[in-house]
Amino acid sequence: MNIPRTDLPRVVIIGGGFAGMALARKILKEDMQMVLLDRHNYHTFQPLLYQVSTSGLEPDSIAYPLRKITRSSKKCFFRLAEVQSISAEKNTVHTSIGDLVYDYLVIATGSKTNFFGNDSIEEHGMWMKTVPQALNIRSLILENLEQATITEDPERRKALLNFVLAGAGPTGVELSGAIAELRNHIVPKDYPDLNPNEMNIHLLEGLDRVLPPMSEHASKKAHEMLEELGVKIHLNTMVENYDGHLVKTNTDLAIKTETFIWSAGVTGAPVKGLNASALVEKANRYEVNAFNQVNGYENIFAIGDIALMKTEEFPKGHPMVAQPAIQQGKHLAKNIKHLIRGEKLEAFDYFDKGTMATVGRNRAVVDLHKWKFSGFLAWFVWMFVHLWFLVGFRNRTVTFFNWIYNYVNFDKAARLIIRPFKGQEENMRMDEEKV
Ligand SMILES: Cc1cc2nc3c(=O)[nH]c(=O)nc-3n(C[C@H](O)[C@H](O)[C@H](O)COP(=O)(O)OP(=O)(O)OC[C@H]3O[C@@H](n4cnc5c(N)ncnc54)[C@H](O)[C@@H]3O)c2cc1C
After folding, report:
1. How far apart (Å, rounded) are the C-alpha atoms in residues 65 and 391?
2. For residue 7, which of 18, 116, 188, 246 sits 20 to 30 Å off, Cα-Cα?
3. Is 174 an annotated catalytic residue?
4. What is the H or E stretch that residue 212 is in?
5. What residue ranges of the chain have pLDDT lower than 70?
């Protein structure tokens, strides 16, 4: 791996997502050697992946090179590597590029798509955890519009113009709203041979409201906004099967479609090797104590989506969103410094900053503790917060100008089939857990 030997304590971080990056940035200048490992050489800003899938942003506006973080210290290293397993008894991680011994190990591997054991969805559906997968969705949407333009078979055209999403959490809501805007503003101009009224966006949700993790107010408002955009919402509807052409549900509803997007949940992405007692099986997340130490280990920590810290307020662990990941990353930086100096560790205390989701142009919902609001103000707050947290000055600037351009021109400038979607096998190969 070509990491120099050192007398300094070595901290190995697996994963340069929100949690890993927040930690790495805080310990760069400390008296320790840090090695950051990730299977991608960039950090992905997942909250904006849906804009890449729907041609609103270029992929490089939401990706940030991880070497830009480690380059500011000679004691810090980045390696592009897939971590395959951990031998805790030897303090060693085994990776696609060799083994590495650690003094402290931090697992920040995030989550992966949860298919809840439904093989048909995994085999034929689309999902969105990575930049390449978002690009696959973008290509597929645009390719299906091209196909719909030329087909003479009305049944096939219908299937090509049906876009079905399962799961009305923030991702399903944002994605269906963005596809509806594509239909409302772009299709009439770009595809004059198509009748936009023939293009249908169906959002299926197993529970009785959209945005189940948010307040009733947010659900109601988001539901209204989606309907204004023309999204057809089917509540209490669970997908049972998708064979690549037909979505079957637990109700009478069955929809022919060539675009089926699964956005119904995630599960932890653990690494092989730790004791079974470290993992909460149902959630696939490592159980950690208040210092983020993995159950049964003193020098192995987990932060972010992969960590399940039970507290009185969060008996099932913190929500799998960016804020707990960032806050745990920053907090663990303090505790690693304490450990190295032989000081007492400090317990993590999550500060919930609220939740938000956007539905489309001028439409969003925000839950800020007692304040719940929606519409233009919520949309403005959503944009501001996402720009603020987007990593890197360049990415913020490019995204900001793209948004202004798209807003003024009712446009989505990145509607390009750069790399045609080659089918499901490619999608699965690009999946995080399968690389
Ligand atoms: C489509 C989508 C939209 C979202 N929208 C929002 C939102 O609007 N607001 C919000 O707060 N949250 C949102 N989230 C959730 C949020 O992105 C996650 O909670 C957050 O990314 C968790 O951070 P993390 O550091 O734990 O994991 P991640 O950010 O997922 O990072 C994990 C990193 O580990 C790397 N990795 C994993 N396994 C290995 C391995 N074995 N070897 C090497 N590297 C590995 C991955 O490549 C990745 O870089 C969204 C998530 C998705 C998928």
Report:
1. 10
2. 18
3. yes
4. none
5. 424-435
Collapse the DSSP code of 251 into the 3-class scheme (helix H, G, I; strand E, B; otherwise coil) and give the result: coil
Mean of per-residue pLDDT scores for the chain: 95
Q: Measured from the CB, is residue 131 less than 6 Å from ligand 1? A: no
Query: Which ligand 1 atom is at minimum distance from the Cα of 129?
Result: 53
Dump pLDDT digits (tens) for 321-338. 999 999 999 999 999 999
Residue closest to 122 by CA, chosen among 411, 429, 378? 429
Alpha helices (runs of H) in 125-246, residue ranges in sequence order: 131-150, 154-161, 170-181, 187-190, 216-229
User: Cα dist. 397→41, 131, 199, 387, 391 in Å?
Assistant: 21, 19, 33, 9, 11
User: What is d(CA 154, CA 160) in angstroms, rounded to the nearest whole number?
Assistant: 10
Of residues 30, 122, 174, 287, which has the active-site annotation?
A: 174
pLDDT at residue 433, as a whole number: 46
Q: What is the dihedral of CA 77, 80, 82, 86, to 10 degrees?
A: -10
Q: Ligand 1 pocket, 86 CB below 6 A? A: no
Between the alpha carbon of residue 432 and those of residues 78, 246, 378, 407, the distances in Å are: 19, 26, 32, 33
DSSP 8-state symbol, 186: I
pLDDT digits (tens, 9 = 90+) for 259-300: 999 999 899 999 999 999 999 988 999 999 999 999 999 999
The contacts of residue 196 (CB under 8 Å, 6+ apart) are 183, 184, 187, 188
